[in-house]
Amino acid sequence: MTDVLVIGAGAAGCMAAIKAAEAGASVILIEKNTRIGRKIMLTGKGRCNMTNAKPWSQFAAHLHSKPAFFKSAFYNFSNSATVDFFRSIGVETVVTRDDRVFPQTMSSATVVDALADRLAHLGVKTFFGCTVGEVARTPDGCFTTAFIENNHNFFHPKMVASKTVIVATGGLSYPTTGSDGAGYAIARSFGHTLQPTFPSLTALTPAGYDMRLQGATLINVAASLFVGQDMVQYEFGELQFTDGGIEGPIGFKLSRKAVWAMINGDKVSVAIDLKPAVPVDALADRIAKEAGQEKVTDANFSRCYGRFLRRFMPQAIVEPFYAGCRPSLSGLASALKSWRFQIAGYVGYKRAVVTAGGVSLDEIVSKTMSSRNVPGLYFAGEVLDMDGDTGGYNLQFAFSTGVLAAESAAKYAAEH
């Protein structure tokens, strides 16, 4: 009989196993992959954006769906506590723009290796290559968890008895890392409600997407999201065009509402403002002045737009911009202020950074991460109905909820 069983060795699960062991509990960690932290390796484009240094008042604005739910976990193990913890296990950090925190090495492997070393040092018993089956509660209030261990293609059925269970299986995003929604099935088996899941922080694919845009990055631009005729979100910053469509920091921020709207059958469009710092009238005056100097008119604009548009945008987007807008010289200011894309779809879970939706927060005690339905059952990380913007917010949510679940589970096991 072990005190704490942790299912899932991602960010939340690894932190949960470590903190439960540090609290004196006996811990078993079960993981589907052959090593810990597969998804951590992908974060921050392989650099691991570990957290964000913003204070809670600003941090909370980047969370969905109920930021207040996370407050107890954040204050119990804050972003500064995350930095201190990783420093204590040999990972120095740096803070970059937008208060993003990375390992000094700018390598996700540094973080994963440090977590693996800490797990080993604490003597956490780990099972890799495992598929978890039924998790059941026994008459005495403990748990039995059935799983199959794949050891070099030899499959061994196993069973673990534990006083508590922490479900930290992640969501559905990046299924190649092992995310298959297994935690949702466990939650359902114990009567938990699931909020609808959908991919977030993903690419939005414009109708008739001009692949010549692929690889272009726009700095200091603005983008507005329209659902039907209503503008529902505005973001400023960096935008990237990829093989999937509109991405980058502000594209990702728009994606959550955009995907949800499309799932509900609404028409979605994105308008990019290439000159957000300049009012349209002032921009029109500048265009008229420069056109006069270059002897560009409405009559000849279609022949000389290429040279002229380079004054207002990167060379890489000149041809796609003109092909998509077909502006006249007199209408160029409006086109630069509202380059409109009808959104036809989005890239699904295969490349979405995070899963929105999940286990209902109404059924989880925010001060302990415990199930309101089943004593001794805890949830942490992406399996819950909480997700954040890009920028370190999701990993901090995983770390904080993993720590709180672990400390609560260790205390419960000691008392029972």
Describe the structure.
With 416 residues, the chain is α+β, with helices and mostly antiparallel strands. The protein folds into two domains: 2-199 and 353-415, 3-Layer(bba) Sandwich (FAD/NAD(P)-binding domain); 204-346, no CATH class. The protein has helices spanning 11-22, 56-59, 71-76, 79-88, 108-122, 182-189, 248-263, 280-294, 301-309, 315-325, 332-337, 393-415; strands at residues 2-7, 27-30, 51-52, 63-64, 93-95, 100-103, 125-127, 130-137, 143-151, 154-167, 194-200, 204-206, 217-227, 230-241, 246-247, 268-273, 339-346, 354-359, 364-365, 370-371, 377-379, 387-388. Strands 1, 2, 7, 8, 9, 10 and 21 form a seven-stranded mixed sheet that branches. It has a six-stranded antiparallel sheet with strand order 12-17-16-13-14-15. Helix 1 runs parallel beside helix 5 (108-122) and helix 1 (11-22) runs parallel beside helix 12 (393-415). The protein is elongated, with a radius of gyration of 25 Å.
